[in-house]
Amino acid sequence: MLEQETIDRLHEMRLPKMADAYLAQDSDEHWKQTDFDTRFAALVDAEHRSRVSNRRVRLLKLANLDQPHARLEEINYTSGRKLERRLIERLGGCRYIDDYRNIFITGATGEGKTYLACAFAYEAIQRDIRTLFVRMPDFLTDMELARRNGDLKRTLKKYTNPRLLVLDEWLLVPPNEQEVRDIAELIQKRRRHASTIFCSQYDDSEWIEQLGNAEGPLAEAILDRIIHDAYRIKIEAIDPDKDISMREVYGLHEEDEAN
What we know:
The protein is an alpha/beta fold. It is 52% helix and 11% strand.
């Protein structure tokens, strides 16, 4: 068995799983009969798996997902919604992030837009992609507070740095002139180096009106930077008369969404 001093040094070097794995090997007769290279590789694998797992736990926490338990493999394709399964599964591979393309998820309240966006975000995190979820009203409030506190540059970087940003409740309420400028700055800084998932109750054909139409020259500039190469997922009820909220389908409750 390694001397205790060596075990202590592994912990000092922040290699606790390697130390634990060695102790486990030392108490197992099978491992004692295994060659050095195989044993050492197993020790390294144990430490690596632990670090990958811990990193992804941190990324998930930093992402602040509204529904952190959302998973693509748990999407209910028989829930009475029109869902393009092949497209959703293809986007789950996260190639769109490498290509700096966006995703538009549109549909009425309760159709599962946020769940789907969070499921995409989870897939990104499993590929070690820095991700952030934010409601559009919270982003705009954050920017206004930063402007008052003289902290605008740092706050904007909070939203421009993640490789994947989920903007929920996109244009739910028409923004004012200053808010349109904040949105334009965000979109411009993320353009061609990051991807954004936009969740909206409005179809993208209506976004120009929500942004101020002809009264706001920035509206066309914003849409021009996000709309041409985006993937579109429109969630609709097959039979509106039998429509139920996706919160019921996925067993979500108000307290779940608050956590």
